[in-house]
Write a structure and sequence with these properties.
It comes from Nicotiana sylvestris. The protein is mostly helical. The chain has two domains: 200 residues, Growth Hormone, Chain: A; 157 residues, no CATH class. The chain has 14 helices and no strands. α5 crosses α7. The protein is globular. 36% of the residues are buried.
């Protein structure tokens, strides 16, 4: 006889109600995620310029702040996933995160409209002669970044899993194909929203100023929140399960207690526990996912993504070297000390190849990694899957900030001009890109090493 708690767990993952879930919920979820991406990603490309012009910060300082902001946005996904899967459920966490992002973007927008929230502008771009932001001004700026980071940390790990809740039905024989299609379309919309953010929103900021350029993302975030909440009556809202750490601890204890058991395939059914929502996987001596219905395997997709990103960074280094050479040849550009240098006689189409490769790299790597993790963990940890993915991005943000500061200190030692000088014509961003490409190659070699423990095996 099942306990009351066990019956409730079964109800949570029972076949879908005909009146809730399904494709009719996708417009609300996709609109919420798409507008959130357009709003948040639209703030990032020009933010370093806003910090340099609006807050009189050096390029290295501004870049470090933005790297830490990015790291927090991704790192807080662990908190969002834990709160979602263990306490509040995905619907509430996505709603809280969306509202938090809206609040943070509104505060950031206010910094462009209320002059006392920023230091006085510089007549000339000489950092030592410019007014630094006061502690109060700096606090408001960082507070807005922090609130936006909390919102992103709550929305991003839970939104994709919340959408999967609406479609996932183990009784449907086409369920695996539906879920693969969902992941692909989900990331396709993210790619389109990123394209809009880095083109249209950035153009608006350049053409119409910060007030309009930051105001539009805040308004889009308002629409994002409204769309998500409007779909509330149609959603399947899976209840939170017990604390994730409880399950981890149980697995650890069981593994230690049963480490000496001679396991045979005939009686392995009683050896380990699985939740009702998890599929039973065949045991093996190493990691291995068999036939691939989706074409390329998740591991192969990740590998392709790493190769493409390395190529993109190499092309970025070559393009920057060409741009710098052209800029130095224009004698009226090189002597200037500030970022407001004249236009370089070079087409922006030079940057298309590297951005195309970066986009493809992100598509291959992100989708492959999420599918890999989603297939390995139970449905009750769906939010945690994306949190694990974003954890890597958080670590990269902190590591990137460390690289920028160390590289600036080392390359400017003895009065030399830093590779990351505020005047990019005097610096050497091309060397910086080559360094990142080298790190990416090392990462790919590490990936190949790990793949040795994940090779498919034939039937025994």
């Amino acid at each position: 006889m099942a306990t009351i708690q066990e019956e409730e767990n079964l109800i949570d993952y029972s076949p879908k109600s005909p009146t809730k879930g399904g494709l009719k919920t996708m417009p609300f979820i996709i609109v919420n995620e798409t507008l959130e991406k357009v709003a948040s990603y639209g703030l990032q490309p020009n933010m370093v310029i806003y910090l340099m012009k609006g807050y009189n910060l050096e390029a290295v300082t501004a870049t470090s702040i933005l790297n830490i902001w990015s790291a927090l946005s991704h790192g807080l996904a662990l908190l969002g996933a834990f709160v979602s899967d263990s306490f509040f459920g995905r619907f509430r966490v996505v709603a809280i995160g969306s509202i938090s992002s809206l609040f943070g973007m509104t505060i950031l927008w206010l910094t462009t409209m209320i002059p006392p929230l920023r230091p006085l502008p510089c007549d000339q771009f000489e950092i030592n002669e410019c007014n630094k932001p006061t502690p109060a001004q700096f606090f408001v700026l960082l507070f807005s970044f922090g609130i936006i980071a909390v919102g992103a940390g709550f929305v991003r790990p839970c939104s994709i899993a919340f959408g999967a809740d609406q479609l996932d039905n183990k009784e449907n024989p086409k369920n695996k194909r539906i879920m693969e299609s969902y992941f692909n379309w989900y990331y396709a919309t993210i790619g389109m929203s990123t394209l809009v953010a880095t083109t249209l929103i950035v153009y608006i900021q350049d053409a119409f100023g910060w007030q309009i350029g930051f105001g539009i993302p805040a308004i889009l975030m308002l629409f994002s929140v409204s769309a998500f909440l409007l779909g509330s009556p149609l959603y399947i809202k899976v209840n939170a399960s017990e604390s994730l750490f409880t399950g981890f601890f149980q697995v650890l204890v069981a593994a230690v207690r049963k480490r000496n058991i001679n396991l045979h395939s005939a009686n392995c059914g009683n050896y380990y526990h699985h939740s009702p929502d998890s599929e039973i996987q065949a045991l093996t001596n190493s990691f291995r996912h068999t036939g691939q219905q989706g074409g390329l395997s998740p591991v192969l997709r990740m590998g392709i993504g790493l190769v493409l990103s390395s190529a993109a960074l190499a092309i970025s280094a070559i393009t920057e070297a060409i741009r710098r050479h052209i800029a130095i040849d224009q004698k009226d550009i090189y002597p200037q000390d500030g970022p407001n240098i004249a236009s370089v006689d070079m087409s922006a189409m030079w940057f298309v190849p590297q951005y195309v490769l970066l986009g493809l790299a992100d598509a291959f790597n992100a989708i492959g990694l999420v599918e890999f993790l989603y297939s390995e963990l139970p449905k009750s940890m769906s939010s945690f899957v994306v949190a694990i993915f974003t954890l890597g991005m958080a670590v990269s943000g902190f590591f990137g900030s460390l690289i920028v500061n160390v590289l600036d200190s080392v390359t400017s030692y003895g009065g030399e001009i830093s590779w990351l000088s505020s005047n990019i014509n005097k610096g050497h961003l091309d060397y910086y890109y080559w360094l990142l490409a080298f790190f990416n190659i090392l990462n790919f070699l590490y990936f190949l090493l790990i793949c040795q423990y994940n090779r498919p095996q034939g039937p025994s």
